[in-house]
Amino acid sequence: MPYDLVIVANRLPVDRVTQPDGSSGWRTSPGGLVTAIEPVMRANDGVWIGWPGGTEEGLEPFEHDGLELVPMSMTQADIEGFYEGFSNGTLWPLYHDLVAKPEFHREWWDSYVHVNQRFAEKAASLAAEDATVWVHDYQLQLVPQMLRTLRPDLRIGFYLHIPFPPAELFQQLPWRRQLLEGLLGADLVGFQLPGAAQNFVRLVRQRVGHKTHRDLVYLPDGRTVRASPFPISIDAAGFEEMARSEPVVARAAEIREALGDPRKVFLGIDRLDYTKGIFARLRAYAELIEDGQLDVEDAVFVQVAVPSREQVEEYRILRDEIDRLVGRINGDLGRIGRPAISYLHSSYPREEMAALYTAADVMVVTPYRDGMNLVAKEYVACRYDNDGALVLSEFAGAADELRQAWLVNPYDINGMKSALLEAFNAEPRETTRRMKAMRKTVTQHDVAAWAASFMSELSDVGTHGKAVKPA
Ligand code: F6P
């Protein structure tokens, strides 16, 4: 059946789960993207194409919670070449300021082209005449052009969830021109920040030679492509509601008690990724204890590291490094029943995250580079009492909006130490003043507003296809 709206993302918004009776089923993923897109999908008879994880073959399209989902299978070779290889071994580090060294392998690129082509073909086969297709993220940058070739009638939007690098870094890519041309298949290319959109337009002018003016690219065939920023957000009301709920309030109290009722709780929650700056942040915290400026009787640092991309070498190395660091810090600085760091290598449902946010006095988000960082926004959304301090890296996209956080340069260990200490010692009046301002930003610009503004801009710019209905 043809669809008026097709969402194309590397992952489906569901995870495989084993039911109590042993059969397998699906559960909606904790990420916020599905919350944002669901209402537009429902209003427009939409479908979502993506990988369900694993190598299962022959999965049929299915419905989950009223959403139409089309699984894309991947072979072990696709996973190694397209996903772990080109997406996460080449593009991920290159787009994140070379925090790790990107690897360039021609076989990975071939696999990336092959998988992008399969996604494009699937989208082309599902889209109704003049439909809108919204393609997501760095794994699928060739899909817009491939799709345009297959189906010139479509209106195509693309959104990059991660940073888009400065020209100086992007130029290293042997396949730089193909990626730019891939993105130019879209009518609208969305980025987190204005600087990323400008990087893209500049590269298109320099590398592909198209005429550009401000946020517009003029293609020789008469088409125009717009590149604009759309900073992504969260379901702020949903998080606040959860944080106010009785079970979450009770769980937060239980967490503090289990931690030994320290005066202050620091919290970090990140995917276990080298871009997140977990190692440096824990070192800075440990030094404050060594220097005698913090005491393990007074404070504890809860660090949740969500397992991620565990087959990729860099991620395994990082895990070992953090395991060793936490062991050493706790061994050297902890006392009985009073570890300096309470470290959890696990992923948790949203309710548990809300309880952790509620239990934390100082939230520490210090990535070296991050497209946005939704954890920072989730923390703010949960602090309905206007208390709690946020220490935030200047290099997270969220820092553009959350100006009242204690902003830090994560490469500057002394600077981070000062910020952690200031946030720890801040007067309630000061934390309230800052939190109030940040809460205003997060509640006004939530994920529904993000999706609506992308869709409305796409409806304005596209010369092909018909406009989508607002949710
Ligand atoms: O936004 C960045 C992103 O890479 C998403 O595209 C992705 O779904 C998420 O982080 C988690 O990573 P992965 O899908 O590789 O587990």
From TrEMBL:
<dbReference type="GO" id="GO:0003825">
    <property type="term" value="F:alpha,alpha-trehalose-phosphate synthase (UDP-forming) activity"/>
</dbReference>
<keyword id="KW-0808">Transferase</keyword>
<keyword id="KW-0328">Glycosyltransferase</keyword>
<dbReference type="Pfam" id="PF00982">
    <property type="entry name" value="Glyco_transf_20"/>
</dbReference>
<comment type="similarity">
    <text>Belongs to the glycosyltransferase 20 family.</text>
</comment>
<dbReference type="InterPro" id="IPR001830">
    <property type="entry name" value="Glyco_trans_20"/>
</dbReference>
<protein>
    <submittedName>
        <fullName>Trehalose-6-phosphate synthase</fullName>
        <ecNumber>2.4.1.15</ecNumber>
    </submittedName>
</protein>
